[in-house]
User: Which sequence fits this backbone?
DNA sequence: ATATTAAAGACTTTTGTTATCTCTAATAAG
DNA sequence: CTTATTAGAGATAACAAAAGTCTTTAATAT
């Protein structure tokens, strides 16, 4: 009963990228460094995020990654689905009963969690983090 | 991002046991049969349920498993925890930040799901299933 | 052209789940 | 008390998924 680690790395990367000054790009080596990950491994995660349209990548000199144009709309759920796919937490083996009540309860609880995660935007927590930082600095 | 299959088997077994006439016991072979599982494998799952106090086992002739005395209080979450342990869906790797906002969002959504699952009792869906069965028979 | 950077694919290692087999312990019934 | 019966425990094998590495290819700014 858990997400894969890749989701964890993806969330940290996304927050890092949103935090960055807009339009500035950053390479995989820097992103890997701050999370103490191998660049090649993180690269696969970044590619998934790119394919999902959450970030943009440009190859070549001075290339790298940056957040996609519309960071305001990126939710926690978006990141999770980009990495984990659409797979469900609960998968009934045979699915032999149309209105099955076991499945119903499990799915409903899961859907509610997904609903909540789709309403939580990354930009919101980054803004809160910036406020915290400012408050700290003005001490 | 998913529960293990064992949780699935455990839920089906529990529903089966609650459905059974009270005080009647049933052996692992019957429980394994209806789910098309090997008895030895299901046995481990049953042992976990026993240790969690959700069911009772008696060895020896005419032994087997039956639901514990208080089936009215068994929630979906109880079964999940009996199998999966207390592990969380989201585990931050380093936990380096006390009031971390990433962790907060992930934990809150998870806790809400757990809360919901702790309010859904197995007995409720079994009762509904019995009503459905009766309605079908009176056709 | 060249240096730089992401993407893709093959591959290995590690970890966790699923499953089987064997042996032991408990208990009801004769 | 003995025996048949059933759960429990442990070792271990088989399998699958995740985590991680290495190498090659493609794109691009200078
Ligand atoms: S009983 Fe429900 S949850 Fe179980 S296999 Fe059938 S449809 Fe799926
Ligand atoms: S940033 Fe938050 S979620 Fe990430 S490792 Fe630190 S405390 Fe955990």
Assistant:
């Amino acid at each position: 009963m858990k997400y894969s680690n890749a989701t964890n790395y993806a969330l940290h990367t996304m927050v890092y990228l949103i935090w960055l000054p807009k339009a500035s790009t950053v390479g995989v080596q820097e992103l890997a460094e701050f999370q103490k990950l191998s660049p090649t491994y993180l690269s696969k995660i970044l590619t998934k995020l790119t394919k999902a349209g959450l970030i943009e990548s440009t190859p070549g000199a001075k290339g790298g990654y940056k957040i996609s144009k519309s960071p305001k709309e990126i939710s926690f759920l978006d990141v999770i689905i980009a990495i984990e796919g659409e797979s469900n937490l609960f998968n009934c083996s045979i699915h032999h009963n149309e209105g099955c009540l076991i499945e119903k309860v499990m799915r409903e609880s899961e859907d509610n969690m997904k609903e909540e995660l789709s309403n939580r935007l990354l930009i919101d927590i980054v803004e809160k983090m910036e406020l915290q930082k400012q408050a700290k600095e003005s001490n």
Q: What stands out?
A: The longest helix of chain A spans residues 101-119.
